[in-house]
Amino acid sequence: MTVDTLRKFVMPEVIFGEGARMQAVRYLDNLGVAHAFIVTDPGIINAGWIREIASAAEAAGISATIFSQVSENPRTTEVDAGTSMYRENGCDGILAIGGGSPMDCAKGIAILSTNGGMIQQYEGVDQIHHMGPPLICIPTTAGSSADVSQFAILNEQEKLRKFGIISKTIIPDVTLVDPDLLSTLPEKFIGYCGFDALTHAIEAYVSTGSSSLTDLHALEAIRIIGEALPVAYHERENREAARQMMLGSLHAGLAFSNASLGLVHAMAHPLSGLYDLPHGEANSLLLPEVIRYNYLSAQARYNRIGEILGASEEDIQKNGVEAIIGVVRGLAEKVGISGSLGDRGVLRRDIRTLSDHAMVDGCIVTNPLLPDVEEVMRLYEAAL
Amino acid sequence: MKRRSEQTREEQLLLREKILGLGETSFRKSYYPELRIRLRELERFRFILDQVSVGIVIIDPRTNSIVDLNEETCRLLNKPQKELRGMRLADCLDQRSALNPEMTEIENGVAIIRDLPSADGELRTLEITMHHAIFGGEEYRIAIMRDITRQRAAEQAIIRTKDMFESVIRISAVQDAGEEEILSAALREAAALTESTHAYCAILSPDETFFTISSSSDDIPAMARLSPADRGGPWEEVIKRREPILGGRCGGICLPISEGDRVVAVITLRGKPLPYDEFDLRVATYLGEALWQIVLRYRAEERLWQLNEELERRVMERTRELANLNSELEAFTYSVSHDLRAPLRSINGFSLAIWEDFADDLPEDARLYLERIRSASERMGTLIDDLLLLSRISRAELRRQEFSLTDLAHEVIEEIMEQEPRENAHVEIEEGMVVSADRGLMRSVLMNLFSNAWKFTGKKEKTEILFRSQKNNESTTYCISDNGAGFDMAYKKKLFLPFSRLHTTEEFPGTGIGLATIARIISKHEGSIHAEGIPGQGATFYFTLGSKERTGVLQ
Amino acid sequence: MISKGTILLVEDNRDDEVLTLRAFQKNRIANPVAVVRDGQEALDYLFATGSYTERDADDLPVIILLDLKLPKVNGLEVLREIRNDERTRVIPVIILTTSIEDEDVIGSYTLGANSYIRKPVDFTEFVEAVRTLGNYWLLLNTNPSAGRR
User: Fold this and answer.
1) C59 touches chain B (CB under 8 A)
2) Residue contact A126–B26, C-beta within 8 A
3) For B382, which residue in chain C has the nearest alpha carbon?
4) CA A181 to CA A139: how far, in whole Å?
């Protein structure tokens, strides 16, 4: 099949570095935006970043409407509210500032503003027919990679589920990666987000959609995160560590956005939907079991990951997958992640439901080994 | 399970393809296709806008200059797009139009711009409506222009047609005017309808040698109204070609008016500021036809009037002749009464004088002759008197009044009986007969009829006279019957002729004029009279007096 | 008492003149009779003008017998003159004519004729009429002033 031989690499225009955020006004202008719709969350507003950017935009003759009613897991209702506000104010471009939540919400608003309808109807892959308005992202976390990805994960609260929208049309036009903004993130989130980014890189690397282009970013992401995460976690004032995390997250994002992900994400999404479990946390708890399941299907690649994360050649030779799982777990523990899904309140009786959802999650198709539902159930159980 | 997993695998492969950005819509991560689609839509829309027959102009209200426009606008304003952009709309329109340069006057209203020259040289009429619009936060004015030239022309045609008919009606209503005045009025109407300064009508004489010219104005001296028909020029040409000339050498409209194959007149219109068009020709043709019909009608009326005059004149002549005859008759009557009687009197008087003075000297025969002379002269006197009476009655005016015929009959019969008493006479007169008639004349009638009855029953042992009435339908018939000498019905028609007698004077004296007089009187009453008789047994006279109703009407 | 005044006969027809005089004679009317031939002569006689200038104007006839159809001035004109003049207005005028036309009869009476006699064809009747006339106007109305109606 030719599909197997074709690979594609799409990424936004990226500016990385301290003060990159201040390029937002220039890009808004370049993209012909006269009235920017700023999607963010209250924390960012409190930090003062929005005021700074908004006033700069105003000074350049670009008006701004700020929307900050975004939950940790952005809800479809919030997308609707944002879309209404976007339209009412006659906005013609979106600026998303924050972690994955505001950016995913911003993507949802972008979709609805040009395509209309309910956001749920764009669930799945490649369901969007019209380009959205210009979208500029300024990430404040090093993890979600929503600023470079074709993914948007939204929470449909009424049905207690999360669903993914995957489309190249929602890859932002510009992402301004500014390490300055990272300092605001709470300690716990630095760990989760960092682990989220690491999972992205690992899954992208072992994905059946990987290519040398994605591999480059995936491996560089694993290397950078493995080194910088513990430092950034423990030394909040370490500017260089933060900078590295942002860079690692960016690489991870570029990798998975083009190579896609795997079973960890497929299984993590239902957990976040059912228990509102932070995405990074769910990833970190599922990652070891999935590595174990996948290992034989992508042994060399997992071994390479283990090596990068610090596992010795002998350890790997001797313990195989456990050596890999060991370094991963070790890293998790360094940033305060431990325990199991059961500790987080996940119930055995939900496993079937979770598994069914996982089986239809888009991420599953690029997993090196395609499981059936029983296998997924067993994996949940193992992580319980 | 395995089957299911295979199926899932198929789906999963498809899904994987999409995730990798190789799905159908995933290749569009560019604004350009989208922009191109939008652009194409705009171009398509632009194309549509360029096809519509309405000019659309977008104007910047701050500068009043044209921002954008469609193709129709270029056509309507007769300028290319490039030139029009940035111009002020008012400057694009003809300077003659009374459009406010600031365009504020027709804001949100409708402006009509007339006589705007177009590429093909024709004059257009534009209707412009102004609208407000806001897009992209900017305020604009949008002018919508429609070419209403045809619509105007159609409206104009209707108005002119209406004017034309009104003109025809006005012309037809011209009264108490001569042919020249009618023509002049009609030509003035034609000039007004076609905006001409001059209108002429040249009527060709029957022998086609000269024209009689009428004008809408009084600019032709009476002497110049006649013009030879063989001078050449448009008139002769029109007559030759038998079709109108529009423009060209005649400088206006020249059109023939025909009666059958013959051109009888030429109408000329001149002096319209703009060139004459087909419509003018149509108006002129129609009006020309109408004018000619009116002239013909006028001439017919004129002829009729002349005939009437002639007739009236003749009637008056005849009346005068009749009056003369009448007075001659009266003079004759007078002279008969006076002059004829005088010699009679002499004859009678001197015969008597001879008789009285020389009777003793005369032989018996001479005395007898004298007697005859006298009685003949007396009879002639009576005859003349009766003739005079008949003539007087003929001339007399009928004075109807209601009176009792019964009473009059009694009066008359008593008079007769007194003059000539007779025993054994039975006269019966019906009671209550009332008529509307001339009492004096009716007295003559009754006197005559009763006298006759009395006279002709004189030789009977017993006189029986009966006067009664018979009502039938609307009229009443009166009958006077007697048991006298009667007459042969073979002569009944001669009965009422003057001087006709059925009996000798010796038998019954009389002039033979009485019944003629009665017939005249009855006839004057619009009645009728006839008689029936059996010789030796009696006669009955029937007469009517015309119905009362009819008399009433006549009065 | 019978007036012995003059009777003026205005008559152009000589036959009638003779017959009239005969009728007078038959009726024993012995008054002098002046005969004139036309209307003008009648007026001249009465007013002593023309050929009668030498006549005594005061010697007026006691009665005038006037024919209507006269040469020159007709009878009605003569009657009008007679009635218009103070001197003659009281003289009885008897119209003696052949006409029985209404306008003559009415005209005569309107102009003041005292009597109107139609000359009959039968002379006997005429004599009778003259007799009645003579009796009336010559015997009963001898006084001219009493002759006015």
Assistant:
1) no
2) yes
3) C121
4) 8
Q: Residue C96: its pLDDT value, please? A: 86
* Host domain of residue B409: 396-554
Long-range pairs for B70-75: beta carbons < 8 A, 24 or more residues apart: B70/B46, B72/B145, B73/B145, B75/B118, B75/B119
Percentage, residues of chain A above pLDDT 90: 54
Are B428 and B498 within one domain? yes
Residue B404 confidence (pLDDT) above 60: yes
Into how many domains does chain B fold?
A: 3
Q: Give the integer Cα–Cα distance in Å for A47 and A181.
A: 9
- What structural domains does chain A harbor? 2-181 (3.40.50.1970), 186-383 (1.20.1090.10)
- More confidently predicted of B4 and A231: A231
DSSP B23: S
The pLDDT of residue B103 is 38
Q: Element (H or E) spanning B283, and its range?
A: helix B278-335
Residues B408 and B531 in one domain: yes
Q: Which of B168, B82, B76 is nearest to B128 (CA)?
A: B76
On whether any CB of chain C is under 8 Å from the CB of B353, the answer is yes
CATH architecture of C7-147: 3-Layer(aba) Sandwich (3.40)
**How many beta-carbon pairs under 8 angstroms link B with C?**
62
Reported as type and span, the H/E element at residue A37 is: strand A35-39
Average pLDDT over residues C107-115: 87
The DSSP string of A106-151 is HHHHHHHHHH-S-GGGG-EES---S--S-EEEEE-SSS--TTT-SE
**Residue B15 to residue A362, Cβ atoms within 8 A:** yes
**Structural domain boundaries of chain C?**
7-147
Asked whether residue B478 falls in the same domain as residue B519, the answer is yes
Residues B29, B59: one domain? no
Read off the pTM: 0.47
Nearest chain B residue to A134 by CA: give it: B31
Kindly state whether residue B519 falls inside one of the protein's structural domains. yes
| Separation in Å, CA of B29 to nearest CA in chain A | 5
**B345 vs C15: CB contact, 8 Å cut-off?**
yes
Distance CA B168, CA B515 (A): 67
A101: three-class secondary structure by DSSP: helix
Do B414 and B520 sit in the same domain of this protein? yes
Domain boundary among B88, B117, B147: B147
Site from B15, B35, B39, B135 to mutate, A interface, most A CB atoms within 10 angstroms: B15
CA separation for the pair B338, B340 (Å, rounded) = 6
CA torsion sign for A108, A111, A113, A118 is negative
CA of B155, closest CA in chain A: separation in Å? Answer: 48
C121 closest CB neighbour out of B333, B334, B345: B345
CB contact under 8 A, C98 and B349: no
Which residue's structure tokens are 């998975």? A256
Query: Which residues in chain B have their CB less than 8 angstroms from residue A258's CB?
Result: 20-21
The reported pLDDT for the residue numbered A294 is: 95
User: In chain B, which residue's Cα lies nearest the Cα of C127?
Assistant: B349
Nearest to A129 among B16, B22, B25 (CB): B25
Angstrom CA distances, A1 to A4, A6, A7, A213, A261, stand at: 6, 9, 13, 20, 21
Confidence label for C146 from pLDDT (cuts 50, 70 and 90): very low
Residues of B in contact with A370 (CB under 8 A): 5, 9, 12
What interface predicted TM-score (ipTM) does this complex get? 0.73
Sign for the CA dihedral angle at C87, C90, C94, C99 comes to positive
In terms of pLDDT, which residue wins out, B482 or A144?
A: B482
Local confidence band at A351 (pLDDT 50, 70, 90 cut-offs): very high
pLDDT at C140: 56
B358 is a domain residue: no
Contact residues on chain B for C99, CB-CB shorter than 8 A: 334, 337-338
